[in-house]
């Protein structure tokens, strides 16, 4: 693989990107397919144009074309690739023809890998699964405002949301019902989120647990992960990070 460590890593990033984009455009399968078709059909031509611009050392033309290509990677959620293109843009003024040719070869190879991966995916099935299947989610948080915001974000993405305000009740609920994901605030009454994570993990070794907090205390975060949290998200929770966590929970 070029740039990505493995084909699986690239595939995971593409699926996450498609899911995130699908959520942003409210489940419009047709538009998703159009964006992917556009990428497959047009990026090879854009890279051919880049090759011509590299030969003539047209740095302004290179900058403009790189910007156009960068946006298409962004639509697919390939932000690491976007960052690499931005780094290339930053080097343009000082780069010689040989360096630009090497960078171009790298991106041609990468683009071929991306197209091959997109062609191997069943995009319709991915879209249908996201549109028809939501997670069953439990929020464990005593902060009303934070709970309302997270609940709205989850419900807008089609998930069924349950809520309790303390860790003791959460451990009882886990015994009664299966949840795809549990979001647990670290600081709560009765006993802490860390203790709740420990007790829930004892009930269900496979439960996907996300610790949440406004705190950035690394020791506290490490303790949550040590006791069994799969992920940690800092408040306020960003939608793209929430989407990534939900994707990870589905893959378990």
Number of helical segments with 4 or more residues: 11
Element order: H for helix, E for strand: HHHHHHEHEHEHEHEH
Molecular shape: elongated
Structural class: alpha/beta
Percent strand: 5-15%
| SS elements, strand count | 5
Rg for CA atoms: 22 Å
Description:
The chain has two domains: 7-127; 134-250, 3-Layer(aba) Sandwich (Rossmann fold), CATH 3.40.50.2300. By secondary structure, it is α/β, with parallel strands linked by helices. It starts with 6 loop residues before the first helix and ends with a helix. It is elongated, with a radius of gyration of 22 Å. It is built from eleven helices and five strands; from the N terminus they run ααααααβαβαβαβαβα. The mean pLDDT is 87.
Mind sketching the topology for me?
Blueprint (H helix, E strand, L loop, with lengths): L6 H18 L4 H28 L2 H17 L3 H13 L5 H24 L2 H10 L3 E5 L3 H13 L3 E5 L2 H10 L4 E5 L7 H11 L5 E5 L4 H10 L3 E4 L4 H12 L2
Parallel strand pairs: 1-2, 1-3, 3-4, 4-5
